[in-house]
C-alpha cells in the first residue's frame, strides 16, 4: 500500500509539474495568437484607410468636379453632382459627400450637412494648406452616431480651389472588422483607441459596453503590451496585445480574460488527475506492475518534450506565416525543405511545388551565374546580405534583398534565407534617378541661367547658360556669392535678401540687376530665387537668371520708334502750318521785288527783298527736309539720288556741325539707286551727326567734315562721310553697329544711330564700311547697287515737270484756299497773264464751278476745314470730269494717310507750298494752253 501511495503521489506531482510547463507554453501560445490577430486587423485597417484616400483623391481630381467649382448655376450643379455623388456612395462605406469652397462653405451636398461650419472651415484650411487628403478622426455631431470624415483638396493647375468632404459610417466596415474573432469566445474582443491627454479613448463599441464608442476611457499604459492587466479595478485579469495602425492616431488592442484563455488547460488538468485516480485504483486492485510505472514516466517525459517542441514549432510557424518576407529553409544541396506562405504567395507557387524546387530555380536566369560565388561567401562568413532578382511562376521577375544564415542542426548543414521584396524601394530609387536625370537635363539644357545657392547666397552649381551669360566657367563661379556679381549698390541689397532666404525668413527673392561679365561689360538680368527645403543641405535656394538685355533694347527701339512717329506727325503738322504763311510771304516778296526791279526803283530795297526771299527759301527747304526725314512710310521701290540725299542731310545737320568743323563737299554725280531717298537722307544725317559729335566744340578752324558722293570703281553709288575727330579704338570697331553700343557720355546719343544706318543700307542691298584709328578720325563709306540703266529719278514734290508754253493764252483760274493771304499771293503771281478768282471755302467753289464751268485751271488747297480739296474734287468729278482733270492741288504737307493715298491715286499735278512763282506760272500755262481736244 505504501508503494501504491507513493505511486499516487508521484502521479500528482507529475501532473502539477506538467500543468505548470503546459501553462507557460499555453500562455505564450495565447500571446502569439493575440499578436497575430492584432497584426491582421491592423493590416486590414491600414488597407481600408488607403483605399478611402485613393477613392477620394480620384473623385476630387475628376475634371467634372474641378470644373464645377467655376460654375454659377447652383441648381443645375446640385442636380448633376448630387446624382453623381449618390452613385458613388455605394463604393465604400460612404454616408455623404460634400463639395466645399476654399472657405469651407458647402456648394453641393448629398444630405443636409451638420451645423459645424467653423469646424469644417478649419479642417478644410488644414487640408488645403497640406495639399493632401486629411482624415478627421472618429467623432460625433451632437447626438449622432460616431463617424469619420475625409477632406481632399480639389486642385486646378496646381492650386487648391476647393475641397471634397467624404463622411464615412464606421458601422459599415470598421466596427464589424473589430468585432470579428477567429475563434469561439464569450469575452475576447478588440479595442480601437487613440490617445487623449494621459488616457486612451475607446473608438468602437465592445461586448461588455455597447455604448463604449467615444465614451470609455482607459489608462494610457493599457496599450503597452501583453502583460496581464485589468481594464477596470474590479474586473478580471486580461491578456492583451497592442499595435499602432500606420499613418493614423489609432492603436489596436486585442484582449481576452486570463480565466477564459486558460479554461481548456484546466479541463485537461482535471482529466489528467481523474486518470491518475483511476490508475491508482487499478494498481491498488491489481497490485500494480513495475513496468507500467516506467512506461508512464517515459510517456510523461515524451509528452512534455513533444508539447514543448510543438509550441516552438507553432511559434516559428506563426512567425513565418505572418511575416511580410519570404522565408526559406534549404539543405546542403540548396533544395527547399521548408517555406512560408508569403513566399508561395509572392512567387505564385503552391507550398508543395516550392518544396520540389531548389534556390537556383527561383532566381532570374540572368542572375544565376553569381550563385556559386554567393554560396562560397555564405560558407566563409556564416551569413550574407545581398540583392538579386527572383522569378515568379508566370515568368515575371522582381528585385529582392536576401539575408542568408548558415546553421548546423544534428550535424546537418542548413541555410535559412529571408528574402524581402524591394520592388517599391527599387522603383523609388529608379524614380529618384529619373527625377535627377530630368532635373540635370533641365538644369544643363535650360536657356535661362540657373544656379543652386547655399545659405550664404554663394553659387554651389551653375548651368552652362549662366556661365555663358557671365563669361565665366562653373569652376570660377562656384563658391562666389551671387550678390558680388551685381554692379552698384544693389549687390548689398541682394546679399541681404538671399541671406534672409537661406535663413527661412522669406520664400522668394525677385528683382532686376546688372551682372558684371568677365572681361568687361554687363548683363541686364531679371533674377528670381526660391527657397529649397530638401534633404540636401548644400542647397538653400534655386536662382533663375534671365538675360533681358535684348528685351530692353527692343523696348528702347519701340520707344524710339514711337517718338519718331510722334515727331513725324508733329513735323508734318508744323510743315503745313509754316508752309501756308511761307507761301504768301515768298510770293509777295517775289512780286514786290519784281515790281520794284521793273520800275527801276532803289536797288538797295530790291537787294533787301532778294535777301528776304533767300531766307524764306532756306526756311522752305528746311521744312521740306524735316518733313521728308519724318516720313515713316517711304517705300524702297522708288529711285533715289544719293547726291540729293546728302544735300538734304547737310541742310538739317548744319547747325550741329558749324560750331565744330568746316565742311568740305565733293558731290559728284552718282547712278540712281533703288530705294527711298528719305531713308538715304536719314543715313546721311546720322553719319553727319555722328561725325560732328566725334569733334569737340570750340575749335571749328582745326577740324573738317568731308562729304562726298560719286560712282565707285565697281559701278555702285557711294556716299562717304569722314571727320578729323577722336577716332575709334580697334577693339571697338566690331561692335559699333550693335544696337545701343556707344562710346559717348551718358545723355549724348542713344547708341542707335549707326545700327539704324546699318539696317537701312543692308536692307537696300548695300554695305557700310568704316576705317578709323585713335586720334586720326573716321571714314564711313556707304556703297549701294545702281538701279537699271534706263531708270530716271523722280522729281521732288510728286508731280511731273512743268514747262511754260512759248505763247500762252489768257485763261480763267479759280483759286480755292482757306488762307486768304495765300489766295491773294497766287492772284498777284498770275494776274498779269490770267483772270483769277479767289475763293476761301470749298462749298463756295462748288457753287461757282457749277454756274461757270468754263474754268481753265482750279488751284485747290488739299486740306481745308468743312469740305476738303479731296471732297471738292470728287464732287466736281461726279458732275464734270473735264473740270476735275484741271485741278492742281496746293499742299502744305499731306500729313494724313488719306491725303497721301489720294495724291497717289489721282493723276492731277500738285504744287507744294511755299511754291516757286515761275513753277506756278508754268503749271497754269500748260493747262491753259492744252489743245482743245484735251480740254474737251
TrEMBL record:
Pfam family, one: HisKA
Domain PAC: start-end pairs: 384-434
Gene3D superfamilies membership: 1.10.287.130, 3.40.50.2300, Histidine kinase-like ATPase, C-terminal domain, PAS domain
Catalyzed reaction equations: ATP + protein L-histidine = ADP + protein N-phospho-L-histidine
Keywords: ATP-binding, Kinase, Membrane, Nucleotide-binding, Phosphoprotein, Signal, Transferase, Transmembrane, Transmembrane helix, Two-component regulatory system
UniProt xrefs under CDD domains: HisKA, PAS
Signal peptide bounds: 1-23
Residues modified to 4-aspartylphosphate: 861
TM stretches of this protein: 269-291
Domain Response regulatory, first and last residues per copy: 812-928
EC number(s) on file: 2.7.13.3
Residue ranges annotated for the Histidine kinase domain, each copy included: 573-788
Domain PAS: 312-382, 435-487
InterPro entries named in the record: CheY-like_superfamily, HATPase_C_sf, HATPase_dom, His_kinase_dom, HisK_dim/P_dom, HisK_dim/P_sf, PAC, PAS
Listed NCBIfam families: sensory_box
Protein name, entry field: histidine kinase
Amino acid at each position: 500500500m505504501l508503494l501504491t501511495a507513493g505511486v499516487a503521489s508521484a502521479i500528482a506531482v507529475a501532473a502539477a509539474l506538467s500543468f505548470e510547463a503546459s501553462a507557460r507554453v499555453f500562455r505564450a501560445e495565447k500571446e502569439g495568437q493575440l499578436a497575430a490577430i492584432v497584426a491582421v486587423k491592423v493590416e486590414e485597417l491600414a488597407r481600408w484607410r488607403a483605399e478611402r484616400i485613393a477613392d477620394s483623391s480620384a473623385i476630387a481630381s475628376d475634371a467634372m468636379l474641378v470644373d464645377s467649382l467655376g460654375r454659377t448655376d447652383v441648381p443645375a450643379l446640385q442636380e448633376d453632382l448630387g446624382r453623381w455623388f449618390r452613385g458613388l456612395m455605394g463604393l465604400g462605406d460612404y454616408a455623404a459627400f460634400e463639395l466645399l469652397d476654399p472657405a469651407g462653405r458647402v456648394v453641393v451636398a448629398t444630405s443636409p450637412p451638420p451645423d459645424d461650419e467653423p469646424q469644417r472651415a478649419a479642417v478644410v484650411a488644414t487640408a488645403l494648406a497640406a495639399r493632401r487628403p486629411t482624415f478627421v478622426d472618429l467623432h460625433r455631431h451632437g447626438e449622432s452616431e460616431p463617424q469619420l470624415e475625409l477632406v481632399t483638396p480639389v486642385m486646378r493647375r496646381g492650386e487648391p480651389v476647393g475641397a471634397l468632404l467624404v463622411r464615412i459610417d464606421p458601422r459599415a466596415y470598421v466596427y464589424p472588422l473589430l468585432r470579428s474573432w477567429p475563434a469561439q469566445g464569450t469575452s475576447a474582443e478588440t479595442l480601437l483607441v487613440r490617445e487623449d491627454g494621459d488616457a486612451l479613448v475607446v473608438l468602437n463599441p465592445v461586448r461588455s459596453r455597447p455604448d463604449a464608442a467615444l465614451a470609455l476611457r482607459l489608462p494610457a499604459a493599457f496599450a503597452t503590451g501583453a502583460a496581464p492587466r485589468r481594464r477596470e479595478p474590479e474586473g478580471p485579469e486580461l491578456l492583451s496585445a497592442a499595435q499602432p495602425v500606420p499613418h493614423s492616431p489609432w492603436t489596436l488592442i486585442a484582449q481576452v480574460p486570463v480565466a477564459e484563455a486558460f479554461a481548456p488547460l484546466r479541463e485537461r488538468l482535471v482529466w489528467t488527475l481523474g486518470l491518475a485516480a483511476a490508475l491508482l485504483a487499478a494498481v491498488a486492485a491489481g497490485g500494480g506492475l513495475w513496468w507500467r510505472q516506467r512506461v508512464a514516466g517515459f510517456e510523461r517525459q515524451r509528452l512534455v518534450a513533444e508539447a514543448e517542441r510543438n509550441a516552438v514549432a507553432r511559434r516559428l510557424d506563426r512567425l513565418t506565416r505572418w511575416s511580410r518576407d519570404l522565408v526559406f529553409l534549404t539543405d546542403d544541396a540548396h533544395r527547399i525543405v521548408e517555406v512560408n506562405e508569403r513566399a508561395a504567395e509572392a512567387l505564385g507557387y503552391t507550398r508543395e511545388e516550392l518544396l520540389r524546387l531548389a534556390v537556383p530555380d527561383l532566381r532570374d536566369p540572368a542572375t544565376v551565374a553569381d550563385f556559386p560565388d554567393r554560396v562560397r561567401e555564405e560558407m566563409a562568413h556564416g551569413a550574407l546580405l545581398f540583392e538579386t532578382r527572383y522569378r515568379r511562376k508566370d515568368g515575371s521577375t522582381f528585385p529582392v534583398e536576401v539575408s542568408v544564415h548558415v546553421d548546423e542542426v544534428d550535424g546537418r548543414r542548413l541555410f535559412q534565407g529571408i528574402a524581402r521584396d524591394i520592388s517599391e524601394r527599387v522603383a523609388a530609387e529608379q524614380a529618384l534617378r529619373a527625377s535627377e536625370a530630368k532635373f540635370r537635363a533641365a538644369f544643363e539644357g535650360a536657356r535661362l541661367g540657373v544656379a543652386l545657392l547655399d545659405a550664404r547666397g554663394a553659387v554651389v552649381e551653375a548651368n552652362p547658360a549662366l556661365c555663358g551669360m557671365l563669361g565665366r566657367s562653373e569652376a570660377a563661379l562656384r563658391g562666389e556669392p551671387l550678390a558680388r556679381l551685381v554692379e552698384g549698390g544693389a549687390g548689398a541689397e541682394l546679399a541681404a535678401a538671399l541671406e534672409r532666404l537661406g535663413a527661412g525668413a522669406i520664400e522668394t527673392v525677385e528683382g532686376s540687376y546688372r551682372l558684371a561679365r568677365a572681361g568687361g561689360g554687363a548683363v541686364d538680368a531679371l533674377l528670381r530665387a526660391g527657397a529649397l527645403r530638401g534633404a540636401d543641405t548644400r542647397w538653400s535656394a534655386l536662382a533663375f537668371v534671365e538675360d533681358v538685355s535684348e528685351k530692353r533694347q527692343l523696348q528702347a527701339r519701340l520707344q524710339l520708334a514711337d517718338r519718331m512717329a510722334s515727331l513725324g506727325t508733329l513735323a508734318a503738322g508744323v510743315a503745313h502750318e509754316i508752309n501756308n504763311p511761307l507761301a504768301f510771304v515768298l510770293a509777295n516778296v517775289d512780286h514786290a521785288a519784281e515790281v520794284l526791279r521793273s520800275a527801276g526803283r532803289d536797288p538797295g530795297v530790291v537787294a533787301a527783298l532778294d535777301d528776304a526771299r533767300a531766307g524764306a527759301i532756306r526756311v522752305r527747304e528746311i521744312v521740306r527736309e524735316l518733313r521728308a526725314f519724318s516720313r515713316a512710310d517711304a517705300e524702297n521701290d522708288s529711285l533715289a539720288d544719293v547726291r540729293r540725299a546728302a544735300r538734304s542731310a547737310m541742310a538739317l545737320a548744319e547747325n550741329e556741325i558749324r560750331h565744330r568743323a568746316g565742311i568740305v563737299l565733293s558731290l559728284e554725280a552718282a547712278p540712281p539707286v533703288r530705294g527711298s531717298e528719305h531713308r538715304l537722307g536719314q543715313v546721311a544725317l546720322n553719319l553727319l551727326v555722328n561725325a560732328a559729335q566725334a569733334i569737340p566744340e570750340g575749335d571749328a578752324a582745326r577740324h573738317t567734315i568731308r562729304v562726298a558722293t560719286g560712282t565707285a570703281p565697281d559701278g555702285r553709288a557711294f556716299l562717304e562721310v569722314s571727320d578729323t575727330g577722336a577716332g575709334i579704338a580697334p577693339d571697338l570697331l566690331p561692335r559699333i553697329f550693335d544696337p545701343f553700343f556707344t562710346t559717348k557720355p551718358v545723355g549724348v546719343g542713344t547708341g542707335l544711330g549707326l545700327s539704324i544706318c546699318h539696317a537701312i543700307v543692308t536692307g537696300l542691298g548695300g554695305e557700310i564700311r568704316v576705317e578709323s584709328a585713335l586720334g586720326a578720325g573716321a571714314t564711313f563709306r556707304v556703297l549701294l547697287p545702281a538701279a537699271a540703266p534706263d531708270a530716271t529719278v523722280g522729281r521732288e514734290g510728286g508731280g511731273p515737270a512743268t514747262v511754260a508754253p512759248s505763247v500762252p493764252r489768257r485763261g480763267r483760274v479759280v483759286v480755292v484756299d482757306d488762307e486768304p493771304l495765300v489766295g491773294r499771293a497766287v492772284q498777284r503771281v498770275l494776274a498779269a497773264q490770267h483772270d483769277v478768282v479767289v475763293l476761301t471755302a470749298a462749298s463756295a467753289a462748288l457753287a461757282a464751278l457749277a454756274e461757270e464751268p468754263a474754268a481753265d485751271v482750279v488751284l485747290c488747297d488739299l486740306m481745308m476745314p468743312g469740305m476738303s480739296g479731296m471732297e471738292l474734287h470728287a464732287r466736281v468729278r461726279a458732275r464734270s470730269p473735264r473740270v476735275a482733270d484741271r485741278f492742281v492741288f496746293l499742299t502744305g504737307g499731306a500729313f494724313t494717310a488719306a491725303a497721301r493715298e489720294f495724291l497717289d491715286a489721282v493723276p492731277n499735278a500738285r504744287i507744294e507750298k511755299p511754291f516757286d512763282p515761275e513753277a506756278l506760272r508754268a503749271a497754269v500755262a500748260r493747262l491753259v494752253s492744252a489743245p482743245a481736244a484735251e480740254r474737251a
